[in-house]
Amino acid sequence: MVRLADLDDSDRENMLKKVPTLPRFEGRPWVRGPALNKRRVAIVSTAGLHVRGDRPFGAGSASMDYRVIPGGTRAGELVMSHMSVNYDRSGFQEDWNVAFPLDRLTQLAGEGVVGSVASYHYSFMGAVSPVTKYEPKARELAAQLHADKVDAVLLSPV
Fold first, then answer.
1. Integer angstrom CA distances of residue 98 from 50, 103, 120
2. Domain-by-domain residue ranges, the chain?
3. CA-based radius of gyration for the chain
């Protein structure tokens, strides 16, 4: 992930101008839950991933949608259709766990570090502006996670 200090002055200034426009959330989103070794964990990525044969991410309103990735998906079945030309796909091509760490999560479940791995995982395409456009789909996704009895999410922002 790029740090602000690594950006040129104009890009850094552009990013910082967006901060006041980010939504403010009331309430207390963090709650206590069971110990990690009892939690059911799902992955949510912004890498624009989808299973081969599923519809790719595209421009426009479809970009605010997400794709469902079954827990049994293998690396060769996952496709990255993120739209940004500034997006470096080389890490994902070397090891899918860089953007979608399902192998690592499954390993942690096998070692008893986490309770279990969710039946389904999800990917959005990042870089959609404004970020508030994600809210309806995020609420929809929260309901799906709840239905799968997920009580922890591994966010993989790319």
1. 15, 10, 18
2. 35-156
3. 17
